[in-house]
Design goal:
Elements (H helix, E strand, L loop, with lengths): L6 E5 L2 H4 L12 H6 L17 H15 L3 E5 L2 H4 E2 L2 E2 L1 H16 L3 E7 L5 H4 L9 H16 L5 E6 L1 H10 L10 H25 L4 E7 L2 E4 L1 H21 L4 H10 L9 H5 L5 E5 L3 E6 L8 E3 L17 H14 L4 E5 L17 H19 L4 E7 L18 E3 L6 E3 L1 H12 L4
Parallel strand pairs: 1-2, 1-13, 2-5, 5-6, 6-7, 7-9, 8-10, 9-12, 12-13
Antiparallel strand pairs: 3-4, 10-11, 14-15
Helix pairs in contact: 3-5, 7-9, 8-9, 13-14, 14-15
Length: about 425
């Protein structure tokens, strides 16, 4: 059995499900721009309609209630609530209605302020590479938490900073499509400053709430030299400043010698350091790595495991690795609380002749990963909650609609929702608060 107060939920993100990109005063985001550019997203897909959640949120909350979810993690689209500094009340009102609908269904709203959809007008000013973004984000956080802070008691400042800074600014695979390591490191530093700047604002506007940040944690396993560099690059570069007030020294020196370091001003690292109320962790797979001197920055080469099962994303199913990851994070940072804010798998789901969606591989995935979460809890890891990714099949960024992560199937032509077998399995798990 899981602890009595364990939080069971599912997660989504604004651009991936909302649609309605031109409605009620929303301004374009970098993902509108990026996905509209030929060649960036598989099949030329965009989030223009997605799951039409903007219009169907009541139906979706009813499904959450039917499944017995205790919490729902969603993100707010910055460009839906602000046009520059100007508040767009119609956009704020949508999220207020959504929060009220959730509370009426006895579902806790867990709100992520930033899940990658930066307003394009801010990107035109340099986006995350411009230090001015710190005060822009602080203003945004203030507007949202003033409006919702009386009802929302769990806040996540950012989702997966490594992804939106490195993939977005370092190698250009995600929006805004920039390939520059100095730009990546500036964006990462400004994320850290923005997180730190917003936390006291959130606590002031929502004084009895919990404030955290979500990172996608890499779990490299294999050659110790490659493991150390991969952890520094993917994990420690973001977590060490928050928990220790410093960047990891070895990688810092590498970037310094390359001339890539951002403008770190006096007092920055002191301002960044501050333990959040909880650490959100998005976790999907491990990486088996070998040491590779031909790549002086990463020193790492991933090694395919031919005996393993892989998901449609090409990610290895390695359930015991989530246990090892939780233990490692707990040992290094000793967070007061941890929450798995995303975990799940993409498989090629189809509607069967009986009108249902049978996804036994996803059921097996959740079962195995959650058993390893429970093992970590039993060994003292302060894991307080778990959010399945994702509630709905949705726009999977550069993969468009080609990958299905949802526990609820979405027919994108008709917008019909069909709870998969995994949703029914998860519902029973929540009801029992544990395994059969």
């Amino acid at each position: 059995m899981f602890p009595k107060d364990f939080v069971w939920g599912a997660a989504t993100a604004s651009y991936q499900i909302e649609g309605a990109v031109n409605e009620d005063g929303r301004v374009p985001s970098i993902w509108d721009t990026f996905s509209a550019t030929p060649g960036n997203v598989e099949n030329g897909d965009t989030g223009a309609v997605a799951c039409d959640h903007y219009h169907r949120y009541k139906e979706d909350v009813a499904l959450m209630k039917q499944l017995g979810l205790k919490a729902y993690r969603f993100s707010i689209a910055w460009g839906r609530v602000l046009n520059g500094q100007q508040v767009n009340q119609r956009g704020l009102d949508f999220y207020s209605r959504l929060v009220d609908e959730l509370l009426a269904a006895h579902i806790q709203p867990w709100v992520t302020l930033y899940h990658w959809d930066l307003p394009q007008n801010l990107q035109d000013e340099g986006g995350w590479t411009n230090r001015a973004i710190v005060e822009k984000f602080a203003h945004y956080a203030d507007v949202v938490t003033r409006a919702l802070g009386d009802r929302v008691k769990h806040w996540i400042t950012f989702n997966e900073p490594w992804v939106f800074t490195y993939l977005g600014y370092g190698i250009g695979y995600h929006a805004p499509g920039i390939s520059s390591l100095p730009a990546y490191l500036s964006a990462a530093h400004h994320f850290l400053l923005s997180h730190a700047r917003s936390v006291p604002i959130i606590r002031g506007n929502s004084p009895d709430s919990k404030v955290g940040v979500t990172l996608d944690i890499s779990q490299p396993e294999g050659d110790p030299r490659a493991v150390a560099r991969q952890r520094d690059f993917h994990n420690h570069w973001f977590l060490d400043p928050i928990y220790f007030g410093e960047y990891p020294q070895e990688l810092f020196t590498v970037y310094q010698e390359m001339g890539y370091l951002p403008d770190i001003q006096d007092g920055d690292l002191e301002a960044i350091q501050g333990k959040p109320d909880f650490l959100g962790i998005n976790y999907y797979t491990r990486q088996v790595v070998e040491y590779d001197e031909s790549d002086p920055l990463h020193l790492t080469r991933w090694v395919h495991q031919p005996e393993s099962e892989y998901t449609e994303m090409g990610w290895e199913v390695a359930p015991e690795s989530i246990y090892r990851m939780l233990k490692y994070i707990n040992d290094r940072y000793a967070p007061d609380a941890m929450v798995i804010t995303e975990n799940g798998a993409a498989f090629a789901d189809e509607v069967s002749d009986d009108g249902q969606v049978h996804d036994p591989r996803r059921v097996a995935f959740y079962d195995a990963y959650l058993r390893n979460c429970l093992r970590a809890i039993q060994e003292g890891v302060p894991l307080k909650g778990y959010f399945a990714w994702s509630l709905l099949d949705n726009f999977e960024w550069a993969f468009g609609y080609s990958k299905r992560f949802g526990i609820i199937y979405v027919d994108y032509e008709t917008q019909q929702r069909i709870p998969k077998d995994s949703a029914k399995w998860y519902s029973q798990l929540i009801k029992r608060n544990g395994f059969e």
